[in-house]
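Good morning,

Both structures are done.
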Amino acid sequence: MGRFSVEFAVANNRDVVGLPVGSPVLERVKHVLLSGVVDTGAARLVLPQHVVDELHLQIEGETTVRYADHRREKRPLVSNVWLQLLGRHGVFSAVVEPARSDALIGAIVLEELDLLIDPATQLLYPREPDSILTEIE
C-alpha cells in the first residue's frame, strides 16, 4: 500500500483528564506536534523517546518488537497517550523507540479513529465526516 506521513498532536492524557468538559485540549495542556508515518502493516503507535520524555509519559511495561529485518528487541511501552489526528482524538498505548525521530501510526489508531486510507492519493480521511462510526452485529 505504501507509507506516507501525516501531522498530528500528542499529549499526556493524565493532563487532559483534569480539564473541564469541552475545553480545547491543545490550548490548555502541553502537547507535541509531530510527523508520523502511516503504516497499515504496523499494529501499534510508536513514539520517539524525546516525545515520551517531553510529555512525561510513564513507562507501563515492555513489549517485544520485530523489525523488518526480523530482529527482535524489547522496548518500553507507555500508556495514556492522548492523540489528535484529523480532528479526532483517542487515548492509546505506544511503543517507545529511542533512536526514532518520527512516529509510526499503525492500524489500531486508524481503526479507533475510524480513518480510511485512499491509496491513490495517499491521504487519510474519515469514513463518516461528522462522527466515528461503530459497527455492531
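Second structure follows.
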Amino acid sequence: MGSKLNFNRIRKKVLGVPVDAVDLNSVLKLIELYTQDNEKHQISLISVRDILRARRDLEYARMLKESSLVLPTARGVISAARFLKAGKLTRFRPFEFLIRILTLIERTNKTAYLLGAKKEDVEQAEKNLKASFPDLRIVGRFSGYFTKEQEKNIILAIRKASPSLLICGTGLRGREKWILRHKKDLNPGIYIWADNCFEIFSGKDKQPSKALFNIGLEKLIHLKKHPLMIFRVIPYLYFIFLLFIYRIFKL
C-alpha cells in the first residue's frame, strides 16, 4: 500500500491462522484505497469456528492467506490473540461493518452489486438499501441457489456491471470460497461474503443486539430456531485446548 500509509494492517497469527490487527477507521481508509487501486481485494470475516476450519480446509486457508483483510468477528478470537500474546485485535460486528462500507461506497460515488439469498429476499434487500442509501448506485443483483449452468452468465453479468463492491450472501456454492474460486473471472474491486446479510437487509432475519454481541453471545438469537446449535460448544472446547498447547509449547 506504500510506505506513506501509517494505517496499514498488521497481520497476526492465531493458531497459525492469519488475522489482521487494524482498527475500524484504518480499515475504512484501506477500503477506500482498494476502490481506487485497480486490484482485486477479498475481505474475510472470521470467527472461532472459522479458525478451526482453516486448520483442516486447505482451500479455505488459502483464501484467508490471499485476502486483503482478515477481520475477527468473535470475542473468542480477540481473547485468543491476547492469550497467545499475539497482540491486540479489533472486533468487527458484521452487519454494522457492512453498513459502514456501504456508507463509504455511497459517499465516494462507487457502485455495488448484490449476489445471494432467495430471489424475494435480495429484491427486498435492494429496495430497503435504496431507501436507506438514496445515492447508493446498485448496478445489479442476482439471487443465490443458482445452478452450475447459470453461473457462467451470472459471472458475465457481474463483469459487465463492474461493481466497486460485490456483496455475497447465502446460496453460493462454497460460501465465501465462491469468491476465491471465481476471483480470476471478476473485474478488480472489493468482494465480501457476509452470510445472511440480505435476509437482514430485507427484514426477514434479525441481527443480534449490540448487548449480546458485546458479551460474545450473539449466536443465542438463532438457538430457539436451531436448538442443536448447543452442540457447537464442542469445537470451542477443542479451540481452548489448542490455545493451551500453543501457549505451553510456544508454537
